[in-house]
Amino acid sequence: MGGRSDVSDPTAPAVLGSFNEKGIVASSVTVIDTTAYVSSYAWLPGEGSGLRIIDVSDPTAPASLGAYYTHREAFDVAVVGTTAYLANNEFGLNIIDASDPTEPKFIGSYETFGRAHGITVVGATAYIAAEFSGLLIVDVSVCPPCLADLTNDGLLNFFDISAFLTAFADADLAADFNGDGLLNFFDISAFMIEFAAGCP
Fold first, then answer.
1. How far is Cα 95 from Cα 77, in angstroms, rounded to an integer?
2. Could you tell me the residue ranges of all domains in the chain?
């Protein structure tokens, strides 16, 4: 998966390095400075689809920085600043905070009708090539975080409730949903309100 070629002589391109993972198909790549953002999907059943962030500062030895996994295939990626936009077969559009490339986090999503195959982002506007919707033009200027998505998988389900209860039982302030520095009934109530509101 992934690779870089020397094309200084276009008549004789030569491979400088590569980054491969068994069973993973690289579908597209965007490079910002010395960081490559690769959309991918698993060839075999299992975890692997999503976004890879790779340090290519030394093209002969690219190194993994981090990854964000989706439940379905990711086909394309666009990057603006520290935000990555994935076109995929889960929501259609996943928006990922990559400010810490070692721990990219889900910000929000936009569900398309059918899978999204391609994406370009200009400023605060995403242009998505969607399977049954043709070209979709989506405003991505405001995308508040989904606080109740404690598992950072872009979904709200039992696993987020379980993560909240575990944090609450362990006196982990990740469960401090009303921000008062205490863990009590008010945090449970605040979490359930966020959970019921759903993700943007």
1. 10
2. 3-143, 146-200
CATH topology of domain 3-143: Methylamine Dehydrogenase; Chain H (2.130.10)
Sheet holding 92-97, edge to edge: 74-80, 83-88, 92-97, 105-111
Pair 195, 156: CB distance under 8 Å: yes
Q: pLDDT band for 32, please (50, 70, 90 cuts).
A: very high
Q: What is the pLDDT of residues 136-193, one digit of tens each?
A: 999 888 656 678 888 877 678 899 999 999 999 999 998 999 888 899 999 999 999 9
Residue 46 has a pLDDT of 59
86 CB-near residues (< 8 Å, 6+ apart): 39, 50, 51, 68, 70, 74, 76, 77, 93, 94, 95, 96, 119
Q: Is residue 2 pLDDT above 80, yes or no?
A: no
Against a cut of 0.85, is the pTM above it?
A: no
H or E stretch including 192?
Answer: helix 185-197
The answer to whether 76 and 28 have CB atoms below 8 angstroms apart is yes
Tokens of 103: 């721990």
In angstroms, the Cα distances linking 60 to 18, 56, 101, 188, 191 are 7, 8, 20, 50, 47
Sheet with 24-32: list strands edge to edge. 24-32, 35-42, 50-55, 63-69
DSSP letter at 173? G
Q: Is residue 47 scored above 80 in pLDDT?
A: no
- The angle at the Cα of 159, spanning 158 to 165, to the nearest 5 degrees, equals 90
